Sequence to fold (279 residues):
Amino acid sequence: MNEESVKITILVDNQAASGLKTEHGFSLRIETGEMRLLFDTGQGDALPVNARALGINLNQTDMLVLSHGHFDHTGGISRVMQDNRDTGVYAHPGIMLPRYSIRDGLPRAIQIPRESMTILDGLPAQRLHWASQALRLSENIGITGPIPRNTDYEDTGGPFFLDPEGKHADLIEDDLALWIRTGDGLIVCVGCCHAGLVNTLNHVCRLTGQKSIRAVIGGFHLLDATGRRLGMTVESLQAFSPRMVVPCHCTGGSAVKVLQAALGERVEPGYAGAVYRFG
Fold:
């Protein structure tokens, strides 16, 4: 694949260019010479508004990849699938689990919205692909499947549980990332990095046999990260030496400043409407 063939547009993010809608959520449009992909769908309201404003036809989507089963990444499934009769969906089967965030003793349901679940349940088997392991979408594009949790300083990034009583921790084992191989290194797209950014990059490098990182784009979920975690993450990123780091969504303002201090101009905070052409 030539690098020139890769175009990535942020469709949904907590920040947005003038005239676009903000939302606590995330979605990327990825266009290559091979296919048109959507990576996550945000909560649902911002996706069609921003797509229209940016001249993107959601009906022209070959594949929808879901990074994990939280509402702010899966709420727009109906906006993508209702008029698309051929779009294939790729996700880990764990996305369908009930999920809760518990803060100050108050549980909040954060799983996939019912409407999105209904659409996934109704898809024929040939259009719903469960990524319980790493999969290739094409010669140069793949998804990680479950990401091994090998670092001792990375966690899911929040008080996540599988029950409203908080008895069963949610490890968010369905968390996955998407990678694109280019002539100038790997582009890694992440939703929230609940498996940890360093774990994710290590796994992608193992899967592809490639160590050169051209860009990392997405939510890093460092909002509540400890100083130790931030320091170790920065140290590992410096070793990976990516040419571009685009923190979005759940990364957190303080973490972005730490990344910028360490990596300088290579860190470009993302926002809805941002377009990246590689090459």
Remarks:
- The chain has one domain: 3-278.
- The mean pLDDT is 96.
- Helices lie at 46-53, 71-74, 77-81, 114-122, 197-208, 227-240, 253-263.
- The CA atoms of residues 42 and 233 lie 26 Å apart.
